[in-house]
Amino acid sequence: MNDAHFTPDSLAAEMLSYLPVEFEPEIIADFAAGHGSLLKAANQKWSKSTIIANDICNDNFSVLKKTKDG
Fold first, then answer.
1. Greatest extent of the chain over all pairs of C-alpha atoms, in Å
2. Considering the entire predicted model, what is its pTM?
3. 3-state helix, strand, coil in the chain (%, to 5)
4. 6: pLDDT confidence band, cut at 50, 70 and 90?
5. Helices 9-17 and 37-45 meet at what angle, rounded to 10?
6. What is the CA radius of gyration of the chain?
7. DSSP of 17-53, one letter per residue?
8. Strand, helix or coil at 14?
9. Short-list 41, 38, 44, CA closest to 60
């Protein structure tokens, strides 16, 4: 059974646009990060924040690690 759902990049950006302008998180965490769409959008908006990502699926975790390592 595969019930994985991933946030499209466009939706991730739109979701963040609803947060107050003065919102400046020190830490951003996503424990069901998938391929990291929300975290990528958050990192673009708040590049000084510490990003914490995890996912239960090893394949997704590998994608996240490759994204982080560049």
1. 42
2. 0.78
3. 45, 10, 45
4. confident
5. 50
6. 12
7. HTS-TT---SEEEETT-TT-HHHHHHHHH-TTSEEEE
8. helix
9. 38
